[in-house]
Amino acid sequence: MELGLALSALVAAGREPASITSLACLVEPAAFMAILRRYLKDPKTPRPFAHNLAWTMISLARRWVRLDPVSIGELDELRKCLGDQRNRLTEKNRRLLNTLDDPAVRAKLLVLPDRLANWAERAPPARAIIMQIAVAIAILQNAPLRIAILVAGRHTSRRGEERPSPHLRAPAESNCSR
């Protein structure tokens, strides 16, 4: 996903798509900077994603493109232009999580899947959708998955003989905990 976004950013910066012929094209210093500039909130503040993307591209340069140490050092110097990476929650996310400090709110969240499932039994027209939401919330309360993995549907399967039960498979490359 990150490499796809890097490619899109490079094309959006004016690079001709046909000129991008290998992974090495992404880690040329000019391309590297053009990609990172795409993820600046303003000229001084990078989005957190820009830091992650920079590290991914440097890793790509080191492991796959096999750039020499001097070129890796040059990319690392460009990465440092982003400044220090924040290792804290955004204010918006902090406020949201602080609401869970209230035991009553936390209790409501924990019983929400059961309440939705009970409601689904009494609401025939929307039964399936409400039940899907209830199951999704219950899964997310117990497993740190990306919502995209949960809703994609291609990672589900049924196991068992007579009464197959659904199982969720999260492939290692999906990087579910990020």
Summarize the structure in words:
With 178 residues, the chain is mainly alpha-helical. It folds into two domains: 79 residues, no CATH class; 84 residues, no CATH class. Strands 1-2 form a two-stranded antiparallel sheet. The chain has a two-stranded antiparallel sheet with strand order 3-4. A hairpin with a 2-residue loop joins strand 1 and strand 2. The longest helix is centred in the middle third of the chain and has 20 residues. It is elongated, with a radius of gyration of 22 Å.
Keywords:
178 residues; mainly alpha; two-stranded antiparallel ribbon; 56% helix; 7% strand; disordered C terminus
Number of domains: 2
Strand content: 5-15%
For the termini, the CA-CA separation is 13 Å
Order of helices and strands: HHEEHHHHHHEE
- Which percent range fits the helix content? 55-70%
Overall 3D shape: elongated
Strands ordered across the widest β-sheet: 1-2
The helix/strand class is mainly alpha
Unreliable stretches (pLDDT < 50, length at least 5) are: 174-178
Concise account of the structure shown:
It contains eight helices and four strands. It has helices at 2-12, 29-37, 48-65, 69-80, 91-98, 103-122, 127-142, 147-152; strands at 40-42, 45-46, 156-159, 165-168. It has a two-stranded antiparallel ribbon.
Chain-wise SSE layout:
Elements: H1 2-12, H2 29-37, E1 40-42, E2 45-46, H3 48-65, H4 69-80, H5 91-98, H6 103-122, H7 127-142, H8 147-152, E3 156-159, E4 165-168
Antiparallel strand pairs: 1-2, 3-4
Helix pairs in contact: 1-2, 2-4, 3-4, 6-7
